[in-house]
Task: structure prediction
Amino acid sequence: MKILLVVHQFLPKYTAGTEIYTYNLAQELKRRGHKVYIYTHSIAHFDRKYTVKQEEYNGLNVRTIYYSPFPSGIRPAKSVSVKYSPTVWGKIVKNYYKYKGKMKAQLTVMKAQLTVFKTSLQAENYFMNLKNRFIENDFERYIETINPDIIHIHHLLHLSASIIKIAKREKMPIVLTFHDYWFMCGGILLLKPSLKRCEGPLLGGVSCPFCLTPKHNLLIILFFYPFFAGLCIYRNLYLKSILKDVDIIIAPSKFLKEKYVRYGIPEKKISVLEYGMDTKKFKDFGKEKAKNLRFGFIGTIAPHKGVHILINAFKKIKDKDIELYIYGNTSFFPSYFRKLKEKTSGVDIHFLGKFAPDDIVKILKKIDVLFFPSIWYENCPLAIHEAFLAKVPVIASKVGAISEFVKDGENGLFFHTGDVDDLAKKMKIVIDNPDLIMKLSKNIEPVKTIEENTDELERLYIQLRTSTDKEAFVS
Result:
């Protein structure tokens, strides 16, 4: 079969869970003799709006749409270098006090102009995620060229949700995997700016503007509220309606399926298929011995991942010979990372940065217990599955679908989500009971393989191509 996998971003530049899973699936499908194509996006340089490249990555055909998030004609100003001069700076200070009132007025006008610009930019990017004419036209030409037997969509952020309608119009079978909450939440995570979890759009999206524009002051939000409320409601209605054109939807966890069912997606349309993992790299896996007890975190260094909770809990531990290793990309939330670094001064915590997907085996050899302190509704975390492949027990917050994989007292431990003191207690339990790690490790069950997962998907693809009732075989 010719199979087109659509994903918002792809390796090697982007290495989060959705991208890694899509890559592993593509390679397994290719190994079985299928012709696999990847359709994706990447952030472009500022000096170009749209560029399409046909590329190859580890034997996979990858078509990448490069574009800048800035509107047409808008580019960041070039940096200007100003050398220090007492005379020049003296004049600046003198003129500031002389024209202080005028400068304040001009500054107020500039702030207002900047707010309007940011608001229009947000609106443009919001609409582009729904209906991007350039991507629509390119996608239509591309599927006419390759004529795929199946289109399997994994994510549409930065692409265009309307390509579903194009595929439907061309009468091509469409499979869609939910990897998060993008189809019901513009922020993807169902997490408010206060880091409190959200149950979903209220009355179609009337509360969503307060998450969409969190950095503006309340007066500005209220001024633009009718515009953004309408935009949010339109987005949610459009995406919910477009899911009707998808033949089969896959949710990797029961929790994620239940969330979307409560949101109004027909239950019979969603099939629960847990991710499969590339287990071959863990063959003959062995741990590296160390004198110290090694705690670890693997994932993006971001507020929703709860790294601050982990660090605050670790700082409460007074025992010696305990180390915390933190692996993950620090560039997405630089201010958050700076605050974390300030907290770790003088503490045995090591930030080891971004890593290549293939390095996960080396990393897990050096970790005795993995911590997963997320505060958002996790779906099917690859980091937990990878830890289990290495027989590393997990201490996690009981949120989202994590309880479908981590079993308290069996292959890991739970702590109350966001509770620093409770997490510190769990750390202390592991420290004071060294045999507990081995006990939890022995209870870890085999992890579903990418081969098993691909078997399921192949059957689904074949049935979808041949079945007249496309919902009849969805469980």
The chain has two domains: 2-72+128-272, 280-442. The mean pLDDT is 87. The first helix runs from residue 17 to 31. The radius of gyration is 25 Å.
